[in-house]
Design a protein that fits this description.
The complex is a heterodimer of chains A (308) and B (249).
Chain A lengths: L1 E5 L9 H13 L2 E8 L3 H8 L4 E8 L8 H12 L4 E5 L2 H13 L4 E5 L1 E4 L2 E6 L4 E7 L4 E5 L14 E4 L9 E8 L12 E5 L9 H11 L2 E4 L1 H5 L20 E5 L5 H7 L4 E6 L12 E4 L2 H11 L1
Helix pairs in contact in A: 3-4, 5-8
Chain B lengths: L1 E5 L2 E3 L21 E3 L1 H15 L5 E8 L4 H10 L3 E6 L6 H15 L3 E5 L10 H9 L3 E11 L2 E8 L2 E8 L2 E5 L11 H7 L4 E4 L12 E7 L8 E3 L2 H10 L5
Parallel strand pairs in B: 1-4, 1-6, 4-5, 5-11, 6-10, 7-10
Antiparallel strand pairs in B: 2-3, 7-8, 8-9
Classes of the chains: A alpha/beta (308), B alpha/beta (249).
The structure holds flavin-adenine dinucleotide and adenosine monophosphate (AMP).
Chain lengths: 308, 249
């Protein structure tokens, strides 16, 4: 068996999500190759070659892959993927966008968001916003899979894979990249952070997120939010934690002014330790919290900042 | 311009589902069923385009049991012009859903397809992307904004780091994210009117699509339960416990 892992990167650096995906691949038990598709991304290929357990890096370096547009990525993955038993990508918005397209080109189903590898053809994945875990088996000749990164540790460094160039070019004109607006932050990325403090509708407005930021500064934490807080415009969309936002599993998750709807829990209930601060003692978030503080957040956040 | 929207019948988003006793699936007996929330957003977007004069017809399609008629009626009450029910009692996997939708696109001559980004029951997030591949159309997934301009559509997408805008030739496939719009409620007169709108029925077999999948669900289990911990009385006690008991700070 040979497994193709699609690297997640921004043309200059390899994203940690790739390392989690490699670990999932290593549990399938086969040789692992990594595809780095991008533009001017030699450095990424070099970084990928150092991941322990990787046999070969395939570098597809061409302007058509610069933004990893699905219309170019899918034909490339489908073409290279033909000679593999498994194709894996992280279940990030990147992988979720291009991998199903590649699966359809290969005429196979995709198994989304796996959290466990049972065997080379059997995997566990959450359904119904994590309220059930399905064990699924596939007889497809090529198994196309996205991986929930929080469920797998990061692969170690120490490899010395060869880097091979692919000259497959998938230029197309039906989809054109126009622009990207990336939120800039000095804080750790939500999906990689060890500590996360999230605010919900209870924060009342965007300015009040300063209260969370001050605590986050003390803890070196990332800041997240509920859908209600994002919808109300308090914070940008990429702060959203949940079924349809980011899935996180930090050492410590602090939910502030968040009620704990099913869809929010789906994104954070695998955190190691959960703290909830909410003035309503009946809030469902307390049912999953290790430590609950029934209090007004405007009173306790400044206290928390002081105490740290 | 003709728009096709996908409308999936799913358990209501606020129902807390439980795994059934034999571990084969979840227990949906008497559970409230609804239009998949992302499909509702798709319907709303299509209707807005029609109201703005950019589209002539909105066709809603659902693949599912006879009862999925209810969700099609809702889509009609919201403003879709007609419905297509592709009836089957079986669970249809994303690749087969995409194949079915492709036959409808070919038959109806569709310029724009708007689907949800995700079914909240099976949590797949695949159909739109697969359909785009099968039709060789461009895709604008996880859309929070979509604008028609000079025979193209500009789609702003919610991505992990922020937002990305792509411009797509038509026909195109768009999948909706939560913030694309806020769906309206169906008014009583519109619910009445919807009863007279046509729903055509067909089956996957009639459309020539084999819906068997090579992916089988072996078992379904509840997730590990998290039990409620303790309530602390003060910030001081909280910080103390995080330091000495949980050792996470
Ligand atoms: C298809 C679908 C997908 C969804 N996806 C997501 C998702 O990915 N992520 C997500 O988060 N949600 C998601 N939701 C929305 C989810 O159902 C909830 O509506 C949302 O999580 C509620 O956000 P909230 O807890 O901030 O707001 P609310 O439910 O309004 O809760 C606010 C809480 O703040 C508390 N509060 C208010 N003031 C104070 C104060 N001064 N001090 C302390 N506490 C205070 C209140 O007691 C309350 O518990 C989704 C919904 C649907 C239908
Ligand atoms: N059975 C179905 N009938 C109609 N549309 C569907 C069906 N299944 C999926 N879709 C469409 O595809 C979107 C994404 O679904 P999925 O890939 O299953 O998460 C949904 O929001 C629907 O718009």
């Amino acid at each position: 068996m040979t497994i193709l892992v699609i690297a997640e990167h921004d043309n200059s650096s390899l994203k940690p999500a790739t390392l989690n995906t490699v670990t999932a691949a290593s549990e399938i038990d086969g040789d692992i190759d990594i595809l780095v598709a991008g533009s001017g991304c030699q450095a990424v290929a070099d970084a990928a070659a150092q991941i322990a357990g990787v046999q070969k890096v395939i570098l597809a370096d061409h302007t058509c892959y610069e933004h990893q547009i699905a219309e170019s990525m899918a034909p490339l993955i489908a073409e290279l993927g033909k000679s593999y038993s498994h194709i894996l990508a992280a279940a990030t918005t990147g992988g979720k966008n291009f991998l199903p397209r590649a699966a359809a080109l290969l005429d196979v189903d995709q198994i989304s968001d796996i959290i466990e590898v049972k065997s080379a053809d059997t995997f566990v994945r959450p359904i119904y916003a994590g309220n059930a875990l399905a064990t699924v088996q596939t007889e497809d000749a090529i198994k196309v899979i996205t991986v929930r990164t929080t469920a797998f540790a990061e692969a170690e460094q120490g490899g010395s894979a060869s880097v091979e160039a692919s000259d497959f070019v998938a230029e197309q004109t039906m989809a054109t990249f126009i622009e990207e607006q990336l939120s800039e932050s000095e804080r750790p990325e939500l999906t990689a952070a060890k500590v996360i403090i999230s605010g919900g509708r209870g924060m009342q407005n965007g300015e009040n997120f300063v209260l969370l930021e001050k605590v986050a500064d003390k803890l070196g934490a990332a800041i997240g939010a509920s859908r209600a807080a994002v919808d109300a415009g308090f914070v940008p969309n990429d702060y959203q934690v949940g079924q349809t936002g980011k899935i996180v599993a930090p050492e410590l998750y602090i939910a502030v002014g968040i009620s704990g709807a099913i869809q929010h829990l789906a994104g954070m209930k695998d955190s190691k330790v959960i703290v909830a601060i909410n003035k309503d003692e009946e809030a469902p978030i307390f049912q999953v919290a290790d430590y609950g503080l029934v209090a007004d957040l405007f009173k306790v956040l400044p206290e928390l900042e002081q105490a740290l | 311009m003709k728009i096709l929207v996908g409308v999936k019948r799913v358990v209501d988003a606020y129902v807390r589902v439980r795994v059934n006793s034999d571990g084969t699936g979840v227990d949906l007996t008497n559970a409230k069923m609804a239009i998949n929330p992302f499909c509702e957003i798709a319907v709303e977007e299509a209707i807005r385009l029609k109201e703005a004069g950019a589209a002539d017809e909105v066709i809603a399609v659902s693949i599912g049991p006879q009862a999925a008629q209810e969700q099609l009626r809702t889509a009609l009450a919201l403003g879709s012009d007609r419905g297509i029910l592709v009836e089957t009692e079986e669970e249809v996997k994303p690749l087969a859903v995409a194949k079915i939708l492709k036959t409808i696109i070919e038959k109806e001559g569709i310029d724009l397809v708007i689907l949800g980004k995700l079914s909240i029951d099976s949590d797949n997030n695949q159909v739109g992307q697969m359909l785009a591949a099968l039709c060789n159309y461009p895709q604008g997934t996880f859309a929070c904004k979509a604008e028609l301009q000079d025979g193209k559509i500009a789609v702003t997408r919610e991505i992990d780091g922020g937002e990305q805008t792509v411009q797509l030739d038509l026909p195109a496939i768009v999948t909706t994210d939560l913030r694309l719009n806020e769906p309206r409620y169906a008014s009583l007169p519109n619910i009445m009117k919807a009863k007279k709108k046509p729903i055509d029925s067909t089956t996957p077999a009639e459309l020539g699509v084999d819906i068997t999948s090579k992916v089988k669900t072996l078992s379904v289990a509840p997730p590990p339960e998290r039990t409620a911990g303790v309530k602390v009385e003060s910030v001081e006690e909280l910080v103390n416990k995080l330091k000495t008991e949980a050792k996470v700070i």
